[in-house]
Amino acid sequence: MSWGGFKKAVNRASTQVMLKSGHVEQTVDREFENEERRFRTLEQSSEKLQKSARGYLDALRAMTSAQVRIAETIDLFYGDSGIRDNVSKHYLAAVKELDVDTVKELDEPYRETVLDPITRFCSYFGDINEAIKKRNHRLLDYDRLRHKTLKLVDKPSKDPAKLPAAERDEKVAQDRYDELNDQLSAEIPQLIDFRVPYLDPSFEALVKIQMKYCTDSYNRLAEVQQFMDPQIRENYATGQIDSHIENTLMQMRELQIVSL
Amino acid sequence: MSWKGFQKGVVRAPQVLKNNIGSHNEYKDPIIEDAESRFTSMENLTKRLHSESKRFWQSITDMLNHQLEFVKNIEQVYRPITGRPGGDAGDEDGHVEGINACEQYRNQLLQIQELIRPEHEMIETRILRPVDELLSLIKKSQKMFVKREHKLLDLERQTEALHKLQDKTERNPKQEEKLNKVENDYEMAKEQFSYYDELIKNELPKLFKLESEVIEPMFQSFYFMQLNIYYTMHTHMAESKIPYMDMETDIIESFMKKQGTTRQEVESIPIVQFNTNATSSFGAYPSGSRVSSGSKMSGDRFNDRSSTSSSTSAERPERERSDDNPPTYEQSNQLEGADAPPLPSRMGAVKSEKPKDEGTTPPPPPPRKPERHSAPSTCTALYDYEANNANELAIHKGDVIEILERGDSRDDWWLGRVNGKEGFFPGSYVDTN
What does UniProt give as the signal peptide span (chain A) (predicted)? Predict the structure, then answer.
């Protein structure tokens, strides 16, 4: 920290203490405080929005990659056990295609229409928070200098030049504070007013991407059925597949080789 | 391990050793070896199937939950933001169509969650449980392999013992007796080994056949379950349309149309660009970096004013950079210090009363260049002052100190140089010349 910065930090810290103990009167701007609260609300919702937007994309990717891994595993099982109907190959091809297509056709649009805009919106908060921080510093400076003037009025100094100098300092500090305070009070509402037009288009995009994902996946996976005996679908619906699995496992359990 | 098991282990140990160092012929069997490698791969595959099925389901759950969370928060965005405690909306309604759409989409998601819940149970009952069962059966059959292996060791040991005795041309009665016993043991070992060997060779093909019979329906089951999940989600979304959403248009095109120039408008609000040199992660944003486009706005406002102090800031010591404040803030901050009249410091007064306790709050490193009072002036030390840390300047009574930075008052810290060293010293310890 520079010499000036150090001195300011010290001054502000002591003013903070005196404000708390009531030694220095605090300037309160209800209008600004209200805008700051509104800003905090928006900040919180937007950041949660960003988090869920990111989580959605991760889940989508995890889903298609898990599908591929499962299909690969099944295919290896098939290879091991010598089943030769090739259904597992068709299935594997289908989920691999879905995995690639999801990245190609959904990942990019999702970033462009959902994730990036929301992240960009959230990046504004850093600037505004910086401005708020600076505004609060200037307020502390102003409060301290005003207090100093008041003290000189109450207890005039021997040096007659001191009071006008203090008043000049106070005015400078006040102007600096007012400038930023007014700017924030005027511009935070502008940002808040833009929130709906800014973020709303991402909602529709998300729903559409979800819809496209389900439709594409369904259509592509359904194609694998043509390589299967139609009876299998029937068996699945009637629960025969389950009982077949159960029976087979039972036969396996009865083998001597697993009797230990 | 049982006592018996332990005894057996001790007896078998030398044989294991012999086999390991290759001094003995193993009863190698290609069928068994092939089976063993298949077991290992089956075990791995089964485990993988298990964990990936779980991951698959988890990602479906996540996908729906993140959307629910998204809807919840976009709804907050649509609602009026008042700043009154409790979020009381007063007379405002917010973006009503959007709020309704949230409600509708949330219901869709919750219904989908409900609809696919049975599929989740099916993953459990139709896939994971049979897979686990299969895995446990594989493990059991592996025990049989171990058993066979042990019996094989016994047999090898007995064979060796027998050969040793048989090879002897002359045997005394005691050895004859022993030969009988060894022959007996050998026969028994042979029988036991053959039993397990036969068992495995007979049943292994059956096991593999059954395995393949169970894998196929499990796969089919998984496939239809998965298909059902997508079908459910797809049809549910297609059937219950949300009027607010135009599902027919292209995703990106429609987004662009809806967003229009909003982004540019927002980014023309000066406060949004407050942090001009912001270390924003937006360097790679496709439609041009926010930072560079933004510097036009409020950037110039601050840059112009702070350009005078930029040279000093560039030479600031390293520690400066680790400060919380971003560079822009620092620059204008320093400027404030230069512009503003000297500020009195109460803290300084407190400090100088007992400067020795200063160690807890070390003064900052000295700036490289004096910013004010550039005309050199000096003072003379009235007392000795010992430096408590590297930032402070040790002075001795009578030292003539070059003042680099005068404190606001005698009660403040001053920055000075003596004997080529720079540092802070209490202003009350010196007499200005």
Answer: none
